Amino acid sequence: MVSMNNLSSEKPMLQALRGQVTQYTPIWLMRQAGRYLPEYRALRAEAGSFLKLCYNPSMAVEITLQPLRRFDLDAAILFSDILVIPHALGQGLDFVEGEGPILPPLETLADFDLLDISGFEQKLAPVYETLSRLKEQLPPEKTLIGFAGAPWTVACYMLHGRGGGKFERATETAAADPQGFKTFLLKLADVTADYLISQIKHGADTVQIFDSWAALVPDEYFHDRIIAPTARIVSAIKAVYPDVPIIGFPRQAGRHYADYAGQTGISALGLDPQADISAMPKNICLQGNLDPQLLLTGGEDMQRAVTRIMDAASGRPFIFNLGHGVIKETPPEHVAALISLVRQYKRAI
Q: Which of 36, 40, 128, 157 is catalytic?
């Protein structure tokens, strides 16, 4: 068990994650580093490969820091991808322009055991080096966020072989062999926990678990496919780093948000734009949940939405974010305007 008492209490985001109601509202944005920034597009063109960006520490550090140079954000999130886990396990991976990630799909659940887990940590060493460099370069008041994909979401890609659609192969495989699929997810959970523990070891102040496709899981399977694997990850991390806060983001979980928050052990709950902040559990930090489309369009509609979100989050631990990632066509000046609106809002504490 490793104590994290050396973490600065002055980091506003960590204060909120630990349950403090802060007058100053911390803010960061999912996909805050990416294609909407011209400096990112320039570096992406130079690299020639998205995976090269992920595995080149110098480039990954630069991309992670780009939005913090432009905007008054409270956190930097590691530049990487949720699919480095299957890639590090030995599953092929390529990012095709206009198509997204392409993987040779696993033919059966048993194929997972044929993947080469022995070199997992070594293959991910560049990611850990990126975190170590970021820890040295970030201002002390900024929080460094690590992350990973949740087992269900990563399994969708591993079995389907690509993004898009409703990941029918994953759903069909789970239905054909429920117990085998449950075991498959728990194996992924163990690998994911090891990955996140290593991220913390190399400098991450907090980690976020992205379950981007949680909405595809039928109600009767939500516990086994979403909650239980996430709880396993959280428990493993807490056994080593009990003081490190963990953010869970089960996108479009709907009526399952409360159970997810209560049963996984997470410190903060990330919300999608459809979630009602006022209906969420009161005993947990919330993160969210501006519609990225409103950030894209900006103007008065965005202003009204920001006020509505901030009003709903009054009197509780809260981190402002989007309900999903920044859309690539978003003007950077809209991001600056959003941050200004959040900064100007006077919270009741």
A: 157
Q: Is residue 107 part of a domain?
A: yes
Q: One of 31, 70, 162, 347 is an active-site residue; which one?
A: 31
What are the helix (H) ranges across the chain? Answer: 12-17, 38-47, 50-55, 57-70, 84-89, 120-123, 125-137, 151-160, 168-176, 178-201, 222, 228-240, 257-264, 292-297, 299-312, 332-344
Q: Is 194 a catalytic residue?
A: no
Residue 6 is assigned to a structural domain of this protein: no
pLDDT tens-place string over residues 270-321: 999 999 999 999 999 999 999 999 999 999 999 999 999 999 999 999 999 9
Catalytic residue among 18, 35, 70, 162: 35
The whole-number pLDDT of residue 256 equals 98
Evaluate whether residue 165 is within a structural domain.
Answer: yes
List, for residues 333-347, the tens digit of each pLDDT value: 999 999 999 999 987
pTM for the model stands at 0.95
Tell me which of 18, 70, 81, 243 is the catalytic residue: 81
Known active-site residue 31? yes
Q: Which domain holds residue 133?
A: 12-344
Q: Is 70 labeled as catalytic in the residue annotation?
A: no
User: How many structural domains compose the chain?
Assistant: 1
CATH code of the domain in which 181 resides: 3.20.20.210
In eight-state DSSP terms, residue 275 is S
Q: Does the residue 3 lie in any domain?
A: no
